[in-house]
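Hello again,

I reread your note about wanting to compare the complex against the isolated chains. To keep things tidy I'm splitting this into two emails, and this first one only covers the full assembly. Below are the input lines as submitted, including protein chains and any nucleic acid or small-molecule components. They are followed by the predicted structure of everything together. The single-chain runs will come separately.
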Amino acid sequence: MTIFSLALTVLIGILVFVLFFHISNILLDYFGKRSSKIFKLENSFRVVIFIAPAFIILFVFIIYPVFETIRLSFYDKIGREFLGWSNYAWAIKDPDFRRSILNNFGWLLIVPTLSTFFGLVIANLADRIWWGTIAKSIVFMPMAISFVGAGVIWKFIYDYRGPGQEQIGLLNAIVVAFGFEPQAWLTIPIWNNLFLMAIMIWIQTGLALVIFSAALRSIPSETLDAARIDGASELKIFWSIIIPYLQQTILVIWTIITILVLKVFDIIYAMTNGQWQTEVLANLMYDWMFRGGGDSGRGSVLAFCIMIGVIPILGWNLYQHRKDQKI
Amino acid sequence: MKKFSISSIFAQLLLIVFVFVWIAPTFGLFISSLRDKDVLAISGWWTSFTTTDVNEIYRTKGMEAQIEEDGYFIIKDKVFEEGSGKVISRFGITSKNIDEFMVGEIAVFKDGSEISIDEKGNYFWRSKEKFTKKKGKRIFVSATSPPIFTLDNYKEVLLREGLGQAFINTFAVAIPSTLIPLIICSFFAYSLTWMRFFGRDLLLATVIAALVVPLQMSLIPILSIYNDIGALFGVAAKSFPGIWMAHTGFGLASTTFLLWNFLKSLPNEMMEAARVDGATHYDTFMKIVVPLSIPAFASIFILQFLWVWNDLLVGLVFLDKHPSEIILTAKLKELLGSRGENWEILTTGAFISMSVPLLIFFSLQRYFIRGLVAGSVKG
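Full-complex prediction:
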């Protein structure tokens, strides 16, 4: 497609939606103003028009697929024959699946913890230093980068050349400079997971940082000043005042990063594609979507496993929402 | 006061370490994308600020270039491009002994012809006999090269590796995938905030639940719907409108939630007043809500745009890998597989894919942060 026809497609695509709302409004105005009896009807029509597009899309792309995926997880690879629990039985026995579950747990433990911790520390440091804003921008910047882009950046850092050759990867160059042997980092099982997690931590620390930074400003300065006058050290203030004050924020950041980590796909897919024991659920699921023509049953089981991980968070969010609505 | 200054110095040092660790990877990538590909393959990017030693092989011109002067046949040319800044120290004429001669010395080939070369790379090759070979001779030079930065890699990647087209495709995916949800969700969020109807609370709860439903739950059923539609109407299952709708679907909950969060903070009296004056919901929406929501729209636009631009999974599942449809992230992943050792292509490709997000980041950081912080209040 040429740029011109592509631009035209884009324009039409957007116009369709603008015109839908605009024209339906004109029609409603036209018919609505004729008699006051229709006024009530007109209002409910307008509700339908405001909601319909979003609701249809929400239904087709989220609500229906959730139930369909659960259904498919009990069916065979093309979704025809009912198999009962056999896809789940397969998963439990599958070594790749076990590896994925183990790795996902590792990711869930390490990435949210370290991102939150680094974010909190940096937010604290940056708040007290005149060039803190620039520092925050720099740490935050990876948030704008794609996981694949970050993958390339870090693959370059982990690059490996045989011993004796000049290393062009930063990590190996440092290792060699200290007199150790260079390593092919991404191929060392178990440890390579940590090198992949480093990428995610590098990205998500920025998120934690900006949210903490906003939250820190809400701590009353009198409290902090009082503590300082009483002779509390900065470290003491950090542990005894700031951390308890930010509890809610820490929880929020933790859940955001947890949800993200459960779905982690791009980094694994781009860097190792699950080789060398780095497999995770999302990558395994993508694999089964297309392996041997695709297996919707096994793919669905894997998707559902990711879903199970978010259910507690989903429940908690709904509970919080209801509590807020009542106030 | 003294205690404060010690802790302040410690804080500064610690922050410098953090900043360094966070910037070095991206900086290294950027510098590498500007380096000459041959140098890039053999030396780390941190060496690129100093002069480096390079050994190069060059083939002289052949018989067509010769001129006759004072009874000699002469071929003159230079081994480096104009303005390369490289300085030759030694050279050689056989692969066994590549630094046999000092600059300024005369080397004699087996056929009796003589060659000399100066530091800047101009060579002067003369022979009593006429040159008869089309191919010239190989000369080996050892030179020091100043830091060279070039845009050659960008030209190569954009034009020959097909990243230029992928760049355009990514825009064609990202713009509608950002604007369509924004349009639809602003009406939706308005109705959730200001309209009264049966089931409103349930609908809102559904949106909040949908916020955290992983994308993976939708992939298999949606792909199968697309395939069915494609087969039914005889059109391609993977298409731009298809991915727009997919991104709209996956971004719908978060966009609606952010807008709803913003809209409910608007003063209720203003809406009531407008309604009393006989304005329809559509008028209220267009004349009051939209103008007030511009900053919120900006934040949400940026979040969703970056999300779509940086997405890989949706692009892989709902678009073809054909050059006319492939998006940047998928292309970059493809290059990682096929050109894994060509770091000049990978670093440049990665930087091109990052250029738009970084531009948005540096120019609109405020809105970006505001959106993130607003989204984190809950959810």
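For quick reference: The radius of gyration of chain A is 26 Å.

B.
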